[in-house]
Specification:
Structural class: alpha/beta
Largest sheet: 7 strands, mixed
CATH class of the largest domain: Alpha Beta
Protein name: Flavin-containing monooxygenase
CATH topology of the largest domain: FAD/NAD(P)-binding domain
CATH architecture of the largest domain: 3-Layer(bba) Sandwich
Distance between the termini: 24 Å
Keywords: FAD, Flavoprotein, Oxidoreductase
Strand content: 15-25%
CATH superfamily of the largest domain: FAD/NAD(P)-binding domain
Helix content: 25-40%
Number of domains: 3
Shape: globular
GO molecular function: flavin adenine dinucleotide binding; N,N-dimethylaniline monooxygenase activity; NADP binding
Radius of gyration: 26 Å
Amino acid sequence: MTSHLKQFPIPTLESLQAIIAEDIDVQKVACEWMDSFTTFFQRGDVEGVTSLFIAMSHWRDMLALTWDFRSFHGIDAIQTFLSDRLSSVQVSGFRVKPEYTALQRPYDGIAWIKIHFDFETDIGLASGIVRIVPQPQNAPWKAHCMFTNLEDLKDFPEQIGSLRNHAPNHGLWTSQREASLAFENEEPTVLIIGAGHSGLDLAARLKTLGVRTILIDRNPRIGDNWRNRYEALCLHDPVWYDHMPYIPFPSTWPVYTPARKIANWLDHYAEAMELDVWTSSTVKSARKNAEGTWDVIVERDGKERIFHPKHLVFATGIGANEGKTPSMPGMESFKGQILHSTKHKHALDHTGKKVLIIGACTSAHDIAIDYYRHGVDVTMFQRSSTYVFTVKRGWKHMVRDTYWEGGPPTEVADRITASFPHYMAVGLNQLRTKVIAEDDKELLEGLHRVGFRTNLGVMDAGASLAPWERAGGYYIDVGASQLIIDGKIKLKNDSQISHFTETGLKFENGSEFNADVVVFATGLGECRDAIKWICGEEIGAKTRKIWGLNEEGEIYGAWRDVGVDGLWYMTGNFAVSRFHSKHVALQIKAMEEGVFGTRYQSAELI
């Protein structure tokens, strides 16, 4: 499953045959490197630029220089990229941000100077982060990893801060909001399917750029996609990681947010940002028309309305949203209840019954805790090993330097995180995963004693690759692991399932398990399923793969070209959606204003 994934060596001081002087002037070294880089880059000197990089170096670009998401690994790939693009991209205005320039030593024997900088292209404002490493015999430092990112369009800035609406509004606001929401005799430029956090993030970004947008959500109330899930659901990410664009959570907000609370926040967010959402509405179909726009049929209050947006965005989550229950032999003969985890609501629905949960990642653990706390006999069936780390000990190694109280501003933290290409960072994440596992040693040994199988994540890199490659495969422990160790949540994992019986399941080793309820916590299916349902098989067939890591370590399909003009897929957790919603909005705005350039796509898409 992971054979296509790559790992590149991390430059250690030993491999570089370099030492760092105790009296090093970090700012001086940084400025000298940036001065050379700026000179070569602005005059289009590819050889000059690449002479400033080590052989096994990396360059990740998000829209600034490629109008795409690209990661180039190795000096040859970087040289080809620069040769292809430098002549067509006018760059200027490089400026180092000394407040974020620092010598860092993330692990023993590894060190670099991290430099943040801003620059401009012909149409946009951009930022960058580069990490430079020492060379033998005090030779000038060279770059190991470069990140460049489009921040804004010069001529079309976000209408925020000093650019916000300054006009007083005396008695007109309510009628204006009603008119905006009605869309009478008006077409949206963008129609977003789904008003969860991803859809709201993008709508807010588009609104500040002056792009007329409507969101369509089938739920009666914004936030119901969280409100209607199982009662025990709670975010396992800390609050500093989960801020939404423009409106951060209050400083009194709990570190880990209950689902009902986040649901209410989404409702509040849409109101505060004045986003135009049609709730209790369903997109029946969407088809391309002769003019190149979309014919989107929306049903609301028993009536149909056809919109003709230029851009159609799916913000329906990872997978099929409803959850996809695997098909297994004998299911039709089972006399109990079968449901997917997305349909589980209340543990008390199954009081007095025996429950088997199929799956051993986040949803399975959360639901199992819910059942146990309500006195329900619950067993977890583990099909394969799970990466487990604890909230208490794991997060301090993963996000305390970025997304934590007293850390850098959220927008800076987002860029620091993005500045590590996925494949380049595998070695670093393996080191971190070992440290976390050592901290969690007692808990992991307890799980192993009762037979629960664990791993160290995809490529032993913890939770760094699993979300991108598998959209799951791990559990951030908030208490279920100890319940498994104590036998309060029972465990079965000695054989794979053979088939359902009338009273439960039979396994390949001949054992049987009697159950009244079987809950599948087995993932949400294929992202393109929702596109096929709404846009038809023809559009679905043209749509490229969505999610998973490509040959460069970038995500397939999400947030950019998916193979169909005017079709977008907006998804990700709170942090990812916050960051990439800006990228999607900038692409759409650039297209609408006629300043979008040519995508520099990877060979697999050409």
